[in-house]
């Protein structure tokens, strides 16, 4: 009766481990973290001393150690070499209680494998293709049971799914990254071509504005890399943009204050890039034409969500707009870019007027927050 209860408890623990591994695979984005979890939980639930997962590099034809609880260092097995390599090549399970006396044994100096005489290895197969191999090892001579072989079979199937899923995610991410970079470079190239048609701009002005635009796009990618997601907090983005543009355009001796307030609204990467470029142009315009060379000045940037609209407002206490200013005819290149980006690219609205609360200029941008 006690023996039956012990076996029942063992099965419950094994099922819990398999369930945890399955859940990790479903939620994981990082392959290394997932493989580390699989090797750790396998070691615990199978009561072995080491679990290792190797990935197959078909370009060099070797198995490379990707995660292990018992081995160490950089371990590479020529494809087919060793008991683990044999299992991968022949797509069969290898179980031995004395690996060192087996003709298939392949020693990797410095790996720590000399501590483990007993080994069970299985191939990792996905879509009828070998993508790696896994093994469990014991520090004492051990005959692996049918239950252990069955359980490890379940785990290796899950590991193969995890590897395939992570590779698909990685491929999609890389493709999306290249697509974004290409689009952003095309945007910069387009802006440079537009500036070439404005002879009143000096090479210095063109270079400075282009640097600020490139840094604005880089700020979006910096945030994306930090959060590890496809959304960016707009308030954090604009605060970083203020730091970048201030360092490029504000005289360190001037008392120019740029205050940013509002909500950290989550934006998709493309919308964040558009907002970054729009904010960059508006801040440059406020600094160049509103505050100009004044020894002091104030710019207020606010960001809010009203219903499904993002509302961006930029106020400065500078010279203000001419009395006869016409939004349809008097925009310069930078504001032309903003107007086109807001109204055409983002289906939003753009307003620019003298600040009703006092001197200076107020710009209001409203864009829908629906997903692209």
Key terms for this structure?
48% helix; 2 domains; Beta-Lactamase; 5-stranded mixed beta sheet; alpha+beta; Heat Shock Protein 90; elongated; 372 residues; 6-stranded antiparallel beta sheet
What this model shows, in words?
The structure is a single chain. The protein is 48% helix and 23% strand. It is of the alpha+beta class. It has two domains: 2-168, GAF domain (Beta-Lactamase); 198-368, Heat Shock Protein 90. The strands form three sheets. The chain has a six-stranded antiparallel sheet, sandwiched between helices. A hairpin with a 4-residue loop joins β1 (50-57) and β2 (62-68). The longest helix has 51 residues, at 146-196. The termini are far apart.
Order of helices and strands: HHEEEHEEEHHEHEEHEEHEE
CATH C-level label of the largest domain: Alpha Beta
So how many helices?
8
The total beta strand count reads 13
Number of domains: 2
- Mean pLDDT across all residues, rounded? 79
Radius of gyration, CA atoms, in whole angstroms: 30 Å
Measured by DSSP, the beta-strand proportion falls in 15-25%
CATH architecture of the largest domain: 2-Layer Sandwich
Q: How would the global form be characterised?
A: elongated
* End-to-end C-alpha gap: 62 Å
**CATH level-4 homologous superfamily of the largest domain:** Histidine kinase-like ATPase, C-terminal domain
Query: What's the helical proportion of residues?
Result: 40-55%
């Amino acid at each position: 009766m006690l023996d039956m209860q012990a076996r029942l408890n063992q099965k419950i623990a094994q099922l819990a481990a398999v369930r945890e591994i399955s859940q990790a695979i479903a939620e994981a984005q990082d392959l290394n973290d997932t493989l580390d979890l699989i090797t750790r939980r396998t070691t615990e639930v199978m009561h072995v001393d080491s679990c290792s997962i190797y990935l197959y590099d078909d370009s060099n034809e070797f198995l490379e150690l990707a995660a292990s609880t018992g081995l160490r260092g950089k371990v590479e097995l020529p494809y087919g070499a060793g008991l683990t390599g044999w299992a991968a090549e022949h797509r069969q399970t290898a179980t031995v209680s004395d690996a060192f006396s087996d003709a298939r044994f392949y020693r990797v100096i410095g790996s720590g494998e000399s501590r483990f005489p007993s080994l069970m290895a299985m191939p990792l197969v996905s879509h009828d293709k070998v993508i790696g191999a896994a093994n469990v090892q014991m520090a004492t001579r051990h005959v692996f049971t049918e239950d252990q072989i069955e359980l490890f079979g379940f785990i290796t199937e899950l590991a193969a799914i995890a590897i395939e899923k992570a590779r698909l995610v990685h491929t999609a991410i890389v493709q999306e990254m290249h697509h974004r970079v290409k689009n952003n470079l095309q945007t910069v190239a387009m802006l440079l071509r537009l500036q070439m048609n404005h002879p009143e701009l000096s090479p210095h002005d063109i270079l400075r504005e282009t640097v600020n635009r490139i840094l604005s796009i880089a700020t979006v990618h910096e945030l994306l890399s930090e959060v590890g997601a496809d959304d960016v907090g707009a308030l954090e983005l604009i605060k970083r943009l203020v730091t970048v543009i201030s360092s490029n355009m504000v005289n360190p001796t001037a008392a120019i204050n740029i205050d940013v307030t509002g909500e950290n609204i989550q934006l998709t990467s493309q919308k964040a890039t558009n907002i970054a470029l729009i904010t960059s142009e508006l801040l440059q315009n406020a600094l160049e034409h509103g505050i100009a060379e004044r020894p002091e000045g104030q710019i207020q940037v606010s960001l809010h969500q009203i219903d499904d609209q993002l509302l961006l407002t930029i106020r400065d206490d500078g010279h203000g707009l001419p009395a006869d200013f016409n939004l349809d005819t008097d925009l310069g290149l930078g504001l032309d870019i903003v107007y086109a980006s807001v109204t055409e690219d983002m289906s939003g609205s753009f307003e620019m007027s003298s600040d009703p609360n006092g001197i200076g200029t107020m710009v209001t941008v409203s864009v829908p927050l629906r997903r692209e």
